[in-house]
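In line with agreed milestones, work has continued on tokenised descriptions of protein folds. One protein thus recorded appears below exactly as we store it:

>
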Amino acid sequence: MKVLGTAIAALAMVVGSAIPAQAAASDSPCSIAEGACLRLSTNEAWLVYHGSVSYGPVPVTHGKPGYETPTGTFPVLRKVRNDWSIPYNAPMPYSTYFTSDGIAFHEGSLTDPSHGCVHLSNEAAVVFFDNLLIGEQVQVVP
């Protein structure tokens, strides 16, 4: 019986790690019910599940002048675990694309602005990659 209890506890830990923890009493500035929210003015992003924040806010960097991250609501189009930016010759781990011209959430510098993508820490990039589903919404607000 002890082995069964240990196996159940181990399974709960594995399953639990794939689901983001409930956020502290923080609300996102977005109106979406499922997906990701990004606020450019404060460099923050959230995951939203069933209309409530499920993860975040987390710090981000986004597009620098001339390469601004677009505002609006976009669908998650595709995900690539280990992508590479050909135009900028740079790695893009845990890419979750939400525009047809290549804008994505991915692991990247939290100090240097991007060419339009949204940089997340390694931990946050993994959580966004693991929890955003194709077709869910990404809402970007100023």
